[in-house]
Amino acid sequence: MKDFILEVCADSVESVLAGEKGGASRIELCSNLVIGGTTPSPKLYEEIRKYSSIRIHALIRPRFGDFCYTSYEYSIIKEEVRMFRELGAEGVVIGVLTPEGTLNLEAMYGLMEEAKGMSVTLHRAFDMTADPFEAMEQAISLGINTILTSGQKNECTEGIPLLKTLKERSRERIDILTGGGVNDRVIPKLYTAAGVTAYHMSGKEVLDSNMIYRKGEVNMGLPSLSEYTIYRTGEENVRQARKALDKCAVS
């Protein structure tokens, strides 16, 4: 049996439980998944732990946008890594870049010190680096366990050539976790073409709000997003992805 990982990114108790029931190996816990994910609250983590003991890796990202942070933002990131370590999270998902598009090694070293004893994933800041092979070697030198990447493309299927090369060059020194459009339909293709065995998905489904009265002329956030649309992980979406992985495992 091959050692597959199916990680589900989730930003609510409901999504975590759906991912677990669907067969996820672990959860990347975040907030605001609709904008790419930001740091979850400690209370969200604590509420999840009332109902689930699934392995949780907490995303540490103070805001939407790039990964070049101010000193204030970096201070927050360090404190949040420490906070989730003390809360008992099994891992953290982090990344800091220089303005030139390389890993900020000094900043990353500081975060690795705070994360001692935890599994560490370099998030998709990796996909914004100028030289992915240099970034991978730097991540390995820092002791990072996993790189989350779509192969530096919007969709993982478009990034297959780079994913394949990263997997080969990694020589099992670091896990290559494939994200960016992962579902049950693309997993067999990714496995066959790139040889990757770790996958990251949201499995999201679109739900309608329970609100009956709706104030259409007032917007509470991004004008492109409706306040009355809810995005949650679909248990069946995760289950189908897990079935696809299981088939690859015995092929």
SSE blueprint and pairings:
Layout: E1 5-10, H1 13-22, E2 26-29, H2 42-49, E3 56-59, H3 71-87, E4 91-94, H4 105-114, E5 119-122, H5 132-142, E6 146-149, H6 160-170, E7 175-178, H7 187-194, E8 198-201, E9 204-208, E10 229-233, H8 235-249
Parallel strand pairs: 1-2, 1-8, 2-3, 3-4, 4-5, 5-6, 6-7, 7-8
Antiparallel strand pairs: 9-10
Helix pairs in contact: 1-8, 3-4
Describe this structure in words.
By secondary structure, the protein is an alpha/beta fold. The protein has a single domain (5-211, 219-249), classed as TIM Barrel (Alpha-Beta Barrel). 36% of the residues lie in helices and 18% in strands. It is built from eight helices and ten strands. The protein has helices spanning 13-22, 42-49, 71-87, 105-114, 132-142, 160-170, 187-194, 235-249, and strands spanning 5-10, 26-29, 56-59, 91-94, 119-122, 146-149, 175-178, 198-201, 204-208, 229-233. It has an eight-stranded parallel beta barrel with strand order 1-2-3-4-5-6-7-8, surrounded by five helices. Strands 9-10 form a two-stranded antiparallel sheet. Strand 3 (56-59), helix 3 and strand 4 (91-94) form a beta-alpha-beta unit. Helix 1 packs parallel to helix 8 (235-249) and helix 3 packs parallel to helix 4. The longest helix has 17 residues, at 71-87. The model has no long low-confidence stretch (mean pLDDT 95). GO terms for molecular function: copper ion binding. Keywords: Cytoplasm.
